[in-house]
Design brief:
The complex is a heterodimer.
Chain A (H helix, E strand, L loop, with lengths): L1 H19 L7 H26 L8 H29 L4 H10 L1
Helix pairs in contact in A: 1-2, 1-3, 2-3
Chain B lengths: L4 H31 L4 H8 L3 H25 L16 H53 L1
Classes of the chains: A mainly alpha, B mainly alpha.
Chain lengths: 105, 145
């Protein structure tokens, strides 16, 4: 469930990045790469788990599924927070810089 | 248990490599400008995606992946904010299992991410080559006309 949630987040972010390309004002490429990196790593984790559990991997307990969904959503939220920090620090549109200069004046 | 450590270490190495490559690119760019600013070849080189940027893609994949995986380990109580930070490092049996997981799953994660990045670099290089060829052809046809 965590893998699935992250894969969907990666797909949505990639579509949004493609829609805005070649402009990169929102640093969506960075967010997409972050989610794809996590998705690929969880895919390896899922393969390792499948080798261990075999078909039982596809029939998880409802409580485990709910916990994994909750974790997946939290991971997506954390990714968004990291992206937001990168966006504000790098400030590609110069919005934060302009606001700070305005306050100084 | 601690599989994210392997891609995290690769992320650190990638970030250092990116900084080194970027500084070399800036140096060579300055040299080119100083020697002959109207050199067509150097202009063509600049239109290509610099290798430091391509390394940046790998850095984002690795940092993002290992960072979010570290959060998952924190969620499951496998990573703690006090020494030795990894609960499996507390006893030798768990530590052996953790090292086995790092050498199998961790290396697999780093390997898959790197393989995908190599694919991205190959595709982008092919696209750059193709656009260069189209540009050359259009230049030739303009000259002929």
């Amino acid at each position: 469930m965590t893998l699935l949630t992250t894969v969907f987040a990666a797909i949505i972010t990639t579509v949004l990045w493609y829609k805005n390309a070649p402009k990169n004002e929102m640093k969506l490429g960075t967010l997409a790469l972050m989610y794809w990196g996590a998705s690929l790593m969880w895919m390896v984790d899922a393969i390792a788990e499948f080798i261990e559990l075999k078909s039982a991997y596809f029939t998880p307990e409802p409580m485990d599924m709910l916990n994994d969904l909750f974790l997946g959503l939290s991971v997506v939220a954390l990714g968004l927070i990291i992206w937001l920090i990168i966006l504000i620090v790098k400030d590609p549109k110069g919005v934060v810089r302009a606001a700070l200069l305005k306050n100084k004046n | 248990m601690a599989c994210f450590i392997v891609p995290a270490v690769e992320a650190v190495v990638t970030t250092i490599a990116t900084k080194v490559v970027k500084s070399k690119e800036i140096k060579s760019e300055n040299l080119e400008v100083g020697l002959d600013s109207k050199d067509i070849e150097s202009v063509k080189e600049k239109s290509k995606i610099p290798f430091s940027r391509k390394l940046g893609w790998l850095g984002n994949l690795l940092w993002g992946g290992s960072g979010l995986l570290a959060f998952e380990h924190l969620w499951h109580g496998e990573v703690v904010p006090w020494f030795p930070f990894l609960t499996a490092a507390g006893n030798s049996a768990d530590a052996a299992e953790m090292l086995h997981e790092m050498s199998t799953v961790g290396v697999g994660m780093a390997g898959l991410v790197t393989a995908v990045w190599i694919g991205m670099v190959v595709v982008s290089s092919a696209l750059e080559k193709k656009s260069d060829e189209v540009e050359e052809q259009s230049e030739k046809s303009l000259e002929e006309a």
